[in-house]
Amino acid sequence: MLTSLDKSWGLVLGVSSGIGRACALAMAQQGMNVVGVHFDTAAMDESVTQLREKLSSYGVRVHFHNANAARKTVRQEIVAGLAELTDGAGLRVLLHSLAFGTLVRYLPAEEGTAGISGPQLEMTMDVMANSLVYWVQDLAAADLLPPGAKVFAMTSAGAVQHLPSYGAVSAAKCALEAHVRQLACELAPRGVAVNALRAGVTLTPALRRIPEHHEFSRNSARNNPHHRLTVPEDVAEAVVLLSSTTTSWITGNTIGVDGAELLAAGSSWAGGESGS
To answer: Which UniProt keywords apply (predicted)?
Structure first.
């Protein structure tokens, strides 16, 4: 059964760009109030202001925090204010879309360079994977994840594929998917669903930071059965659809939102057809 998202609340971690931004807009279009956390410099002020104004134009309440969502004190402060902000109703949606990690190779690529360091590896794991657990822990302890709530974490095909600079992020995505499975089981008695969304290759600011992204994106668009890359709005549509369900029976999954891109990756028919 589907239900309205009107007047409910969503918390988006990584709201200012890419998939987080698109999801916030789609949620607001459905009448959902949005709390957003982003971590940006002054160069992004105009873009963030425009996003906030666009969200508000749908008649919803909007609260943004420019802070590091992976920091304990930031998380505690935001969680503490959510009970009053939501009038005790809690969240309908938690979207974890934090894309900040090192793109340093494990081993030196050439003489005079350094391989990945312990702090770099640990930071990537903490921001892109472990922070999901910490947010869910605090929200659950504050009774802000009521029955029917949905938790989404953004993963990628990089969890099972190789790119030279993607090792630390790939490891974090694997851990993130494991966290999703564990949280889904532990939150099941509460009626809360937890799923990872595996978006296809999407031209977000995070992707453009990957050194190999040009060739990787071209290959992905060629091989995708739809003959295009995923766009943030594809993921946003999935978030809204899944958030509108009343069931918690769809939980613990890694759900592909990629137009079957991963299935077709490297297949001869996909490459041949797109080149014809």
So the answer is: Oxidoreductase
